[in-house]
Amino acid sequence: MNPETNTTAKGRIANILSVAGSDPSGGAGVQADLKAISANGAYGMAALTALTAQNTQGVQGVHLVPPEFVADQIRVVAEDVRIDAVKIGMIATAEIARAVAETLPDVPVVLDPVMVAKGGASLLAEDAVAALREALVPKAAVITPNLPEAAALLGCDAAVTRGAMAEQAEALRALGCAAVLLKGGHLDGEESPDVLADANGVHWFEGVRVDTRNTHGTGCTLSAALAARIGRGEPVPEAVAEAKAYVARAIAGAGALDVGSGHGPTHHFAGIWA
């Protein structure tokens, strides 16, 4: 990537804050976010919401950060560092959701409503879904749910067709966010389409499904890349296209890594490392 293209409209390298949980195996959470933000030409920072004990085979334990300390991390960073965009990932509880909502700086927010880990472990308490929907969704420039997450937010069955995806994306946008990127990775078939609903209508972003187990942290990676590009000043549709292409490269290049025996991570620096 040409360093000359990494700056915001004001000629400065963008600063992106990730508010999310930690993955000690490095494939998801803030670890993935910081890699994706860096690979997309911005400076990454992180406020932790939870510590997890996990590897590529699954989550074995979660230790929550007290809500007031989550808020303190965001507040202290914002007092000293210009923040150009925020990515929100694992929130875990209603209390943390509200604490984050009350402390967010007035910048574009990309919300990835993380609910279940790749291995099946729940990462969001049942009562937190309402808090996420009411406190954080309306503050988002873009939310990036997958099909089960969209269904949980809307209280309906998961979409199984493109038509249902478009309808649910519009319904989610009616909750108050500026745009919705609904990810179609759970659809059957060889394609993996995503749909963006914004003020200009519905836009489709096509993708070919890659037959691989190395998809740990793809949602984290996509939302962090999107936040980096929005923070750099790119329009949302352009940022979505670039972030999706980046994730596709990261998945395709994952075979170069040798990390774990379960759902391996994507290669965040595919095409960048020699």
Automatic annotation (TrEMBL):
One of its GO terms (cellular component) is cytosol. The keyword Cell wall biogenesis/degradation does not apply. It comes from the Bacteria. Keywords: ATP-binding, Kinase, Nucleotide-binding, Transferase. Its EC number is 2.7.1.49. Pathway: Cofactor biosynthesis; thiamine diphosphate biosynthesis. It is an enzyme of class 2 (transferase). CDD domains: HMPP_kinase (cd01169). The keyword ATP-binding applies. GO terms for molecular function: ATP binding; hydroxymethylpyrimidine kinase activity; phosphomethylpyrimidine kinase activity. Residues 23-267 form the Pyridoxamine kinase/Phosphomethylpyrimidine kinase domain. InterPro entries: HMP/HMP-P_kinase_dom (IPR004399), PM/HMP-P_kinase-1 (IPR013749), Ribokinase-like (IPR029056). Transmembrane segments: none annotated. GO terms for biological process: thiamine biosynthetic process; thiamine diphosphate biosynthetic process. This is hydroxymethylpyrimidine kinase.
